[in-house]
Amino acid sequence: MAYKELIVEKDGPVAIITLNRPEAGNSFDMIMGIEFDYEIMQLSEDRDIRVIIVTGAGRFFSTGIDLSMFVTPERHAIVDESVLALMPTVEDQTFGKGTAVATAIRIRNMYKPVIAAVNGTAAGLGIAVALACDIIIASENARFSMAFVKRGVVPDTGASFNLPRLVGIQKACELTFTGDTIDAAEAARIGMVSRVIPHDELMNEARELADRIAKNPPLAVGLGKQQLYQAMLETDMVEHMKREVDNMGRLMGTADFKEAASAFLEKREPVFKGE
Question: Does the predicted TM-score (pTM) go above 0.70?
């Protein structure tokens, strides 16, 4: 469908979501929040899509929340029924529904991997969205800032949950307390991003990575994602190993497991169907 502030492209098993308010630094207003949450919700249920890429239009990934909403709220009142129709129903109990808060939760809970292809500045809510994704790859032009403190607020949208798990508590404290901006090379050095890519090659690299993931059996990828995040919260290795055994048993009963075994023995490329 056509959105006002997103561009969505689907090509085979990969979907690319582009935040599309370049004139406003791809900052989140109410419309973008509703559209982003709705599209992630739709893609999570789309069996044809196995991997999602999130990026920004123009020079920015996202500069965060659109502060003009708080200065001139009348300019941001939603009167377009087509946008309001995208709001989740009352049956959807996701915390923060219709906002990037809910989107971050959906990204973490869905089985499908989500790659943030950070093309430029990711600040405040923008860095929170990137941190919610499973893999961050960055253009050499990318910049990252926990800018919340500069606006007199605390990190939200899971940023203070995800950041220390990537970079450790001391570096997370430094970035949170100062609101300093770091470049892509520093973000890679401290473990915030997976890799840094020449700017003109960013989307090609993101797509190549997505394609490699999409060739694998989606049930195994999804349960693997779930296991990794559960492991970060688990304190008992034996309990986690029991979960691994349960998941292994589930997967060994799937058609994709049989296809993987057959393809290996027949020395051919497997074709996985998510069954």
Answer: yes
